[in-house]
Each structure stands twice: as C-alpha cells, then as structure tokens.
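The pair is listed for reference:
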Amino acid sequence: MPSRRHFLTASGAAAALAALGLPPQALAAQSMKMGPAQAFSFDQLMARARDMARTPYQAPPAVPAAVLDQIDYEAHGKIHFKSDYAVFADGPGPFPLTFFHLGKFFRVPVRMFVLDGPGNAPAPASTPTSTPTRARELLYRDDYFDMPADSPAHRLPAGSGFAGFRFQESRLADQQAKDWRKNDWVAFLGASYFRAIGDLYQYGLSARGIAIDVAQADRPEEFPDFTQFFFEPPAPGSDTVVVYALLDGPSITGAYRFTLQRGAGVTMEVDKALFLRRDVARLGLAPLTSMYWFSETVKGSGADWRPEVHDSDGLAIWTGAGEHLWRPLNNPPRTTASAFADQQLRGFGLLQRDRNVDHYLDGVHYERRPSLWVEPQGDWGQGEVQLIELRTDDEIHDNIVAMWVPKTPARAGASYRLRYRLHWEQDEPFPTALARCVATRLGRGGQPGQARPAQVRKFMVEFKGKPLEGLPFGVKPEAVITASRGSISYVYTEALPNDVAGHWRAQFDLTAAGEEPVELRLFLRHDGQALSETWLFQYHPFTSREVY
C-alpha cells in the first residue's frame, strides 16, 4: 500500500493544508479530499442554529436507501476506516481521529470539518491583524475504508458522508500497552448519541445531545441528529480535544461545544445552545440512556443463565438540598416515568455500582461498564430529574433514560443555554460520606413455616459505609421507612454475618393489594442522625406470574 506521504504528493493535499494554515504534519489524512475553506466560530454556529429554528425542518440529503439497506450488521462489521487516513495521527495532538461508515442502522450522513485554530475565535476580524478560524470539510470516498470487494458500500456515491467518528487512544500514552489503531476512548455514532470508555476501558451506557418526547403516549419519540462536526487541532501533548456540533431535528436545532479530556477516566465539558421550532411535551436535557434487564433484586424464572445483566443498576441524585438519593432500576411490566422535583440540582447519574465479576459471569464485562454522572454548571433552575423505564426481554435494547426536564413548558420559539460536565468513571465523582446502598433484594413475604400470602413481599436493602462502622457495640441503626400505599411490617436491621465492618441490612415486609406501583423510601439513622443515603424504590406488585 502506498504511504501517506505518497498520497500527499499525488493529491496535492499539502497545498490544502497550507491554505488552512496547518503544518504538513498536522493531518495524517493528507490524502483525504477537502472542500473549500469557510469562516467558523462557535458564535457563528449558535447563530446558524437559531436561524435554522425559524425555518421549516429539512431532512438531510438522501443517500440511496437500497444500498444502505444492504449494509446490514454483518456487512457493516466488515468495513473499517484505514488508519493511514486517520486525522491528527502525525500531529500536533496525541489522539488520532477516525470515522464510521454509513449503513442500514446509521443512515443519516454527517459532515466532518477540520478547523485551523480554536473554534471560539471571532469569525469577523476584530482588528486588521486578527485571523478568523476557518473550516474545511473532509469529503467521503469509499477508498478511505477497508471493505470486501463485493461490499454494497462501494455503490454509494462519492461525497455521501460519514456516520460518526471516534478518537483513538494516545499513541504516546499507549506505546507500552496496545496499538492505538485498535482502541478508542470516545465515539459519536447515531442521532445525537455518544459514549466513552471511562477508567475501566469498557463501553456501556450512552449520553445524548437531547431527548425529545420520550415515552409520550400521544406522539412518537423524536431523534434529532448531529449533522455536522468541527474538530480543533489538539495542542501538542494535550490530553484534551475540542469538538463542535450542529444539531437538527423537526422540533429543535442546537449548537454544541464538547471539550473532551482523557485522564484516568473521561471528562466532557458540554456547552450547548438549543432553539425550539415547535412545542415539545417532554424536553430532556443532558439525557443518559442505558440497559437494565435483571439483577439480584428480583429473580426471574429461567430468564437467562447469568446472575445479572445490566449496563447500569441505579439512578443516583444529589439534590439541591444536599440529600443523596439512590433509586435501583426496574425492568417494569409496562413503561413508567418517575419524576424527582428539585431546584439548584447538584448532579445525577446512571451508575454501575456492582463491580463483582461473579455477579455477571460474562465475557462482555458488565462489571466494567462505566458510570456516568452529570454535573450542572451554574443554576439550572426548577425542574425534575425524570427516569423512564421500559420493559425489555433482552440485553440488546436500551430501556432506561434519565434526564433533566425543566419546569417551564417547552414552547416553540424558546431557547436554552446550558453547561454541564459529564464524568465517565467507575464511581460517582462526588459520593456521599454516608453509607451507600449496595444491594436490593426481593422475595416472598411472611415467615418460614407459615403460609406465604401472595400480596406480601419481603425487602432486604443493604447499606455499607463508615457511619455504620462507628456504631457502638450492641447498637442497631433504625430503619426509617415510608410507603405511598400498603402497610409495612416485620421491620428490623442487622449486621451481615460476614465479619465486614459497616455492612448492614434493613428488612421489612410490604403488603399491597392491586397492581398499581408502590413508591418506597428508606434510610438508616441513629440518635436522630442519618447514617445512610436515601433508598427509593418503585415496586410493581405481582403474584405468581413470571417477572421476565
């Protein structure tokens, strides 16, 4: 295969780089065809999104649907971006940039642009000596990808566009580990979805740029698309890359700036401006999407051979009042929406707290899936953290959504400016000093040797942490329990019989007739002082039917 420098000479891309103001080594993708230069700034991008919202929505240019339909899961898996064309692979920054191909499940073409400087530079020159930032588009060709000779992708026309992108691991940091071409740390692919691997080197749940009308009975969910991305050249030796995005959909437009930092985990600073074309019934800001099939909480009847299957096992919230809440996830019998009203929210996230490999027994490493925490920057005002849970019977479906929904109705013509930080890590970045919930288990209520009534369920909720370690000998914490309906009985607490200091469980029976959900609330206290975070649970009564 000819070298990258051979392609550079053959295509005249050196002149294109010079026109951009970039040194020849700035792009390893020297041979990629580029469009003409155009002025760029984040202010310009926001103004463009605002202007678009004043006009009717226009779908992206159509790519031949008959060809995309043939690029199914198997065919798409055989298409790989050639590392010889990776952007920024030879400098100045440490993170090579590669692209995903279009296909049956990624149908919307996304345009990719490279900037010649910081994207927050003013577009018009403020002084005679200032130079505005410029952008040039990277134009699609199928020879940028390794694919079989008979791949249907060869039938797509030149300039069709890409499906998404990913940043590979730093070549410098990865020299003693693995080839950077085989490992990426962040990926944007499909609608407004994106993911990062965190500090355990494993993809799991996703974030989204926006969520529109999730689980609304009177209308379908809308999935706006990131239609354009703009990449700043990373600084030499930096652990940070900056990406800008344009969002477009029937109900909304938006401009985004992502500052992506690769440290022990992955941190993303998100700055976005949103503009509504039309009313939205449920506007989800900073949305997170995950999968929860089953765990130790409720045992199904032969649902699967593994003990647990989930990307996340709970929703954590740090309220404006300073309370830490933990809500274990459900695979409900029907779609449910739970709302947690708050103001001056400090943060929320979908977490994977259970890290015991023996609880999964699976080579796909659910025990290493990242937790994702949303840290608001500034005051988001009044609203709700909403949790949407959908029923699933397989691990291939994302059935969990958590998001911030403002209290003020989302009406056509409204605009939003929002900043927040996303933490992709194995644990929440601001854990409570109180004991945390580590397990929730349900079983038949009543007492051994006696008839077990069908409408009674037993709950075992485990907590672990330093406040429980410091209890005087012989002192038991009090379980403070409330239920939205039904009655509570057989309440007691005990230290687990495993000689692990500070590991306690609260046990109680709930009697509740009917099928309406029961909202439960529990925490441990002693001498008037809370010892644990607050456990919340939505219980769906069932009798003898199978759970899954």
Summary: The chain is about 10% helix and 35% strand. The domain at 436-539 is CATH 2.60.40.10 (Immunoglobulin-like).
